[in-house]
Amino acid sequence: MKVIIRIVLLAALAALGIWLWTVLFPSPEKVVRRRLTELARTVSSSANESDLTRLAAARSVAGFFAATVELNVDLPELGQHNSMDREEITQLALMGRSRAGGLRVKFPDINITVAPDKQSAMADLTVEANVSGEHDPIVQEMKFTFRKNDGQWLITRIETVRTLI
Amino acid sequence: MPSQDTVGQSNIRPEQPQDPGWLRIILIGRNPKVTFARIAVLVVTCFIIFKFILLHIQVEGISMLPTYPDQSKHFVNRFAYLWHGPQRGDVVGIRFSTNAPAGIHQAANWLKPPHAMLLKRIVGLPGETVAFADGRVLINGEVLDEPYEKTPCDWNRPPVKLGPDEYFVVGDNRTMPWEDHTFGRAQRSQIVGKALL
Fold first, then answer.
1. Which residues contact B129 (CB under 8 A, 6 or more apart)?
2. Cα B50–B54–B57 angle (5° rounding)?
3. CA A24, CA A18: separation in Å to the nearest integer?
4. Cys-Cys crosslink for B124: which of A1, A122, B28, B130, Cβ 3.0 to 4.6 Å?
5. How much is the average pLDDT of B11-28?
C-alpha cells in the first residue's frame, strides 16, 4: 500500500512539475496564441469609453506590432497601404474606436505554425468583428506573421486570405 | 413458559426495505446508482456528439436564402463524408482557415472543430469546369438543373477548371451582384461536413 501511495505521490509531483514548467516556460505557440487573445481584447471597445481610455487602448494596440508592419490586405478601411508604422497603427486604431459605437473582436479559429528556429511564427486565423448596430458580423480569414524581438513576439506582417479562390 | 418469540431469538426484526416513494422513482429511479451511470453516459455521449460530430451553427447573412434564412439554426454533420465524398447539391460547412491541418480524417482537424464557417452549396465537383451564363450554372458547358434556385440572377463568370481536390461552392441567393457574394473553389480539407435539417 505504501508503495502505491509513493508512486501516486511521485506521479502527482511529476505532473505538477510539468505543469509548472509549461507555466513558467510556455511554448512559442502558446505565447503567440495568448498575444492574439490579448490583441482581440485590446482592439475591442465599448460604446461609452472616454477619450483617454480610447487613446490608451489605441497605443496598446500599437504595442502588439513591430516598428514597421508589412501589409497585404484587401480591406477598404485600410486603403492602399503596403506598410505601416506604429504611429499610423495608433491613428488607425483611434479612428476605428471613435467611429464604431462599440466593437467586439474575436479570433475564433487560430492555427499557429512556429518556424524551426522558433524565432518566427505564422498565425492563420479567422477574425470575427461585431460592430454595434450592425446586423451581421464581419468575418475574414487573415494571416499574421510574428517575429520574436527582444523576447517579445511582435506582428511583422498582416495579410488577408481569400477563403474561396 | 416463554413464548417462542423470546427463546433463542432476538426481538428485533430484520428491516424490511422500504419502497421508494413515487416522486423518488420518477426523479432518480428505483436504483440511483444505475440512474446516475445512465446520466453520466448520456452526458458524455451528448458532449462528444455535439462537440465533435454534429456542430451547431447559426446562419448569419442572406447568402443562402431562401433555403437557410438569416439567424436560422442548424447542424453540420461531420460524419457525412466519412465513406463517400461530397455530392453535387449538398449544402456544406466550409472552414475559414485554409491553413488547417489537411485531411478530414486527421485527428487535429477532428479535435479542433471550427467556430466560424461558410455555409454554401456544392455545384461543381473535382475536375469539372464551372461557369455562369445569364445566371445559369454551366458544368462542362451544360446547364445545371438547380431546383433549389428560386430567384432570378444575371451572373456571367468565365469558366473555372477545378483541381482534383477542389469543389465549386456558391450560395443559393444570387440576387445580389456577384462581387458581393462569396463563392468559388474550396479545397476538400476545408469542407467540414454536410448541413442537416
1. B138, B139, B140, B141, B159, B160, B161, B162
2. 95
3. 10
4. B130
5. 71
Interface test with B, best of A125, A142, A164 (most B CBs within 10 A): A164
Check whether B7 has a pLDDT greater than 80.
no
What is the pTM (predicted TM-score) of this model? 0.78
- The answer for residues whose C-beta is within 8 angstroms of residue B26's C-beta and 6 or more apart is none
- Domains of chain A (ranges, CATH numbers): 26-161 (3.10.450.50)
All domains of chain B, ordered by start, with CATH?
Answer: 59-196 (2.10.109.10)
How many Å lie between the alpha carbon of B97 and the closest alpha carbon of chain A? 6
| pLDDT value for B16 | 60
- This model of the complex carries an ipTM of 0.73
Residue spans of chain A under pLDDT 50: none
Give, as one character, the DSSP assignment of residue A82. Answer: S
Whether B77 and chain A come into contact, CB under 8 Å, resolves to no
Confirm if B186 and B166 have CB atoms less than 8 A apart. yes
